């Protein structure tokens, strides 16, 4: 038994949002837009998406 090493395709066949070819620059999405769309789906109703992350307190997140 030998795996299909010939088929070196990207898992998921491209952008999970719109299905377009994925650009390495914005993997795993085809563009920053789709990335935000997907992100919004995950965060919708749960978190607030910060417009600008200027605060430098990512390391001081309280965790119990
Ligand atoms: Zn897309």
Verbal overview:
Helices cover 19% and strands 0% of the residues. The chain contains 1 helix and no strands. The chain has one helix spanning 32-43. It is extended and about 50 Å long. It starts with 31 loop residues before the first helix and ends in a 21-residue tail after the last helix. The model has no long low-confidence stretch (mean pLDDT 74). The structure holds zinc ion. The site of zinc ion has 8 residues, from loops. Zinc ion binds at residues 15, 17-18, 20, 29-31, 34.
Form type: extended
Counting DSSP H or I runs of 4 or more residues, the number of helices is: 1
CATH topology of one domain: Erythroid Transcription Factor GATA-1, Chain A
Distance between the termini: 48 Å
Major beta sheet, specifics? none
Low-confidence stretches: none
Average pLDDT metric? 74
**Secondary structure tally: strands:** 0
Quick take:
The chain is mainly α and 64 residues long. The chain has one helix and no strands.
Features:
64 residues, mainly alpha, Erythroid Transcription Factor GATA-1, Chain A, binds zinc ion
Set down the secondary structure blueprint.
Layout: H1 32-43
The structure holds zinc ion.
